[in-house]
Amino acid sequence: MRGEDRDTIERITGARVTSASGLAGGCVGDVFKMNMSDGGTLVAKLGAPGSGLETEGWMLETLKTRSALPVPRVIHADDALLILSFIDGDGSLNQAAQRHGAALVAGLHRNTAPKFGLERATLIGGLHQPNPWTDTWVAFFRDQRLLFMGRDALDAGRLPADLMRRIEAFAGKIDRFIEEPARPALIHGDMWTGNVIAGRGQIAGFIDPAIYYAHPEIELAFTTLFGTFGRAFFNRYNEISPIAPGFFEERRDIYNLYPLLVHVRLFGGSYVSSVDATLQKLGF
C-alpha cells in the first residue's frame, strides 16, 4: 500500500493503519486487509479514478437497505477508494452453510420492483452493466444481457463474429425458451464462490455484487457455473421458493450464457468454447 493511500485512509477513518496485507479478488484494483489502531479491521479497495468503486459501494448500501442479505458495512466510497468492514470466514461452504445461504438468497429474491432493471447502471467484474427499466424479463435479458455483452465482447476482439451471429439468432427466438417470472426479484448478480464468505456452518457475508431486478433463476444458474452451491442449497431453496421444472435441464444453461459472455469479454480463451457449446446444445 502506498504511503499516500495510507494517509488518505487514516484521515477518513480517524485511526492509524497498523498493518496491511493484500487480499485476492481485486478485479478493478488492489485490495488490502488493514488492522487499525482503534482495534478494528477494515478492507480497502484502491483503484484508478473511474474504476467504479463508488458504484460498488452504492450496490452494497442498496443491498443493506433493501434486503437482509449480510454485506460489508460501507465506511467510504468514491471512484478511487472503497473502505469496508472486514468479514471473516474460513471458506467452508459445508451443507449447513449452503442451507443457510439458500434461506438468505430466497429472502433476497422476495424484494421486488415494478419492472426489470435498476435506477442506475451497475458493474459486473468491472464491466459496464446497463439496467434500463424494462417491462418484460424476456426483453431485458435479451437486449441488456445477451446482446449487450456479446457485442461488447465482439468489439473488444474477444468474441468471433460468427459466434455473435449465432447469439443474435438465438436471441431472436429466446421467447421460446424462457418465460416471465411472477415478479422482478432483487439479485446479488455475481454469486460465485469468491464472493461468498462462509464459516462455522453459516454464511457470514456476500461481497462484490452486480445488482438489478431480474428473474431469480439467473442468480440460481450463476451459482452452478463455478460450483458455488450444490444440492443442499437447491433443496433448501426449493423448499422455500419452488424452482419451476426445466430449470436444471435447459434454462440454467441459457442464463449462464451471460456470465460466460462476461468472462469472454474479460479473458477470451476457453470461455469462447463454452459459449459455442451452449449454443450448439440449444440448436444454434
Descriptive notes:
- There is one protein chain.
- By secondary structure, this protein is an alpha+beta fold.
- The chain has 2 domains: 83 residues, 2-Layer Sandwich (Phosphorylase Kinase, domain 1), CATH 3.30.200; 188 residues, Aminoglycoside 3'-phosphotransferase, Chain: A, domain 2.
- Helix content is 43%, strand content 18%.
- The protein is built from 10 helices and 11 strands.
- The chain has a 5-stranded antiparallel β-sheet with strand order 1-2-3-5-4. The chain has a two-stranded antiparallel ribbon with strand order 6-7. It has a two-stranded antiparallel sheet with strand order 8-11.
- α4 runs antiparallel to α5, α4 packs parallel to α9 and α6 crosses α8.
- The longest helix is centred in the middle third of the chain and has 19 residues.
- It is globular.
- The N and C termini lie far apart (49 Å).
- Summed up, the helix count is 10
The quaternary state of the protein chains shown equals single chain
Total E-strand runs: 11
> What is the general shape?
globular
Whole-number mean pLDDT: 95
Structural classification: alpha+beta
Q: How do the strands of the widest beta sheet line up side by side?
A: 1-2-3-5-4
